[in-house]
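This follows on from our talk about sequence and fold. Go ahead and set the record down below:
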Amino acid sequence: MRILHTADWHLGHRLYDRDRTPEHRAALAWLLETIEEENVDVLIVAGDIFDVANPSNQARELYYEFLGQLARTKCAAAVIVGGNHDSPAMLDAPKEVLKWLNLHVVGAARTQVQEEVVLIAKPGNEAVDLIVAAVPYLRERDIRRAKSGETSEERLMGLQEGISNHYREVAAAAESVRKNPETPIIATGHLFAGGASDHAEKKSYIYQADEHNIEGGQFPKVFDYVALGHIHRAQRVGGAEHIRYCGSLIPLTFVEGQQVRSVRIVDIGKAGEPITSRQVNVPYFRTLLRLNAELDEVKQALRTAAVAHRNTPKALNNSLPTSWAEIRIKTDEHIPNLRQTLLEVIADATEAGSDGPAVEILRVSQERLTPAPAAAPAEKKQLGELDPEEVFSGIITADGYTPERATELMADFRNLRNWMNDAAE
């Protein structure tokens, strides 16, 4: 039985408010080709199919278009579980229809864990070839009840215990329907497993202090493979070959843009036998340049990137959009008109007659080489002392929106506040 493990698609994602649809469309087309070329029997998608709970129509179209095309391949089945970014209700809504296409969706934890167990047989086989414990992202309400007066430490211990218990229960449910002891059982998950190294770039966790969600050794031994999502860098968990994150399908940040993206091909035989697996790297469908250097070095890097884009064969240019750049200039003195200076460098290096620049600058900033003299520390304000607009302004500034988009968001925020105030009155 050959499995392709992927996760963290984040359809609908935007980078500095730029649309990623062309990259996602190309990545999903590549994924379909890989499924065909590798003769994949089962596709596993371990959460975060979408980037937000209420994705755009365009993102939904990408998802359903992919599923429709997948159903026409030789892939016997797909198992798709929800992540912390996904809306369980939205994912689960068409699950009964999709089941007729052998596409099994578990958007949220089920009250009866037996409903998370998926039986898969290859076409023409009467016997079950694979059992999947399709565990989605586990929300706190799915695994425990909060207790009045409990401490943070007690709450975290309760979360860990709830996650472990859920996996034990679903493992037992999977074993209870296994008629042939040689039938392999695999599991999915969308969490942070102890023994994985979270990337420093990640801004938020699923649970408070979720580096202790569950240790790799706590997954039941009955699982021949554990397909995980949530961490965007491919890796083993605690050195175990059979417990893995495959990484995200496309780079979601400029830091991730400097790393390899991948899926994992897993070959499973009889239950209890060692598996074999290998990483398959996903091509980059847009170059993300992360430049952190002095001005002359950055200029040269931009020229090199523009020339590389210019020399790309025309057939490939159709699937290789303009490169995006995040730039930090190291300097002892403020450089006026910095963005314009860099845009001129790109324009000079871009081939005449091109549809647009070879490189688009999404963000540019300046960093002092020599630390400025220490100023008296500003008095820190408590959150309750801040005006809501100050808080929201800080968020959109930190997220790097363009000035125009920031103005639009602030206007929307004010309108929403006014509406809430009117409703309260």
